[in-house]
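TL;DR need structure tokens for one chain.
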Amino acid sequence: MAVAHVRRRAIAARAVPHISPALITSYAVDPPRSGSGPAPAAWGGPIYPTTVTNLPRKLIEPHNKDADEKLPLIRLHDLRHLHATMLLLAGVPVHVVAARLGHADPAITLRVYAHVIRSAETAAADIFAKALGGDC
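>> reply
TL;DR here they are.
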């Protein structure tokens, strides 16, 4: 049983999520630029891990310098949670979200995002009650 668990994790770790063609096209037309020089890693070469990790801060800080409404500083990992939360609230099945996150088992996704699923269930119950003519 332990071998099967390790094998499932290895397979899930290799999964590559689908990326929208529109997103790919937008990057091809207007590739993101670092603070100086050409596009990061000349579009295909190796990149340093800190390049990706520091990207949200490099984008948000210049925006906040001149903006009336400041954006909160976020970590790259926060975008992962935002992605999962938005998919779950949009009604994407848990097993699909789990696959996009690389979770070997959807139970992991259910444990981490249980609060999101509970809030969606509450909203669904309110909608159902309203459809029946009840006061919420």
